[in-house]
Amino acid sequence: MSSPKYKRIVLKLSGEALAGDQGFGINPSIIQSIAKQIKEVAELGVEVAVVVGGGNIWRGKTGSEMGMDRATADYMGMLATVMNSLALQDSLENLGVQTRVQTSIEMRQVAEPYIRRKAIRHLEKKRVVIFAAGTGNPYFSTDTTAALRAAEIEADVILMAKNNVDGVYSADPKVDQNAVKYDELSYLDVIKQGLGVMDSTASSLCMDNNIPLIVFSITEEGNIKRAVLGENIGTIVRGK
């Protein structure tokens, strides 16, 4: 078996990835599949941190468009990420994978507060760490959370798992049949072309800290492991 290309990773999962075809809520078979893939990677000796979105339960942007106060709507979205994180933790621990959830908003009855040094210690002990509740601040996405936490824990790469696309395209491949898939891009290309891989805040943070990003499909089992082993799947976005 090949050795892993990366020692410490941040896996970014969208909330929609947990919903599967049902489009909302948490699909038990999907979350179990993701947990098994994470276990495969952890068994290679890779230190795994996870950031989960909350779009399968609530989107702050949706609440804001309904006339809700934006900060309130975003805080609700942060709580949705905690629900997803606890569900993923439960699936992982059912597989025998030691897991810790750390939240940016304190809720000690259900998870640890986020402490950078403690998170790194958990990773060094080969525990999976799930970062929940975003950055703890409204107006920031979970993409930005992934970029921020990756910089803080000095991760080697961010793996962005998508449930409906297998990389970065020049346009939406579902709408435009002429959309071209990119094998490699720079963050500047992503920002200038408005490719929608991550929001501009997250892209800038990754670029400034020279953190590579791999965008790939989560729907094909084993893809997380393939990405960690350095196989050419999806699209890689580099700092320069």
UniProtKB/TrEMBL annotation:
Residues 7-217 form the Aspartate/glutamate/uridylate kinase domain. One of its GO terms (molecular function) is UMP kinase activity. Residues 20-25 are annotated as: Involved in allosteric activation by GTP. One of its GO terms (cellular component) is cytoplasm. Keywords: Allosteric enzyme, ATP-binding, Cytoplasm, Kinase, Nucleotide-binding, Pyrimidine biosynthesis, Transferase. Its main location: cytoplasm. One of its GO terms (biological process) is 'de novo' CTP biosynthetic process. UMP binds at residues 54, 74, 135-142. NCBIfam families: pyrH_bact. Catalyzes the reversible phosphorylation of UMP to UDP. PANTHER family: URIDYLATE KINASE, URIDYLATE KINASE PUMPKIN, CHLOROPLASTIC. This is Uridylate kinase. It comes from Paranoxybacillus vitaminiphilus. The gene is pyrH.
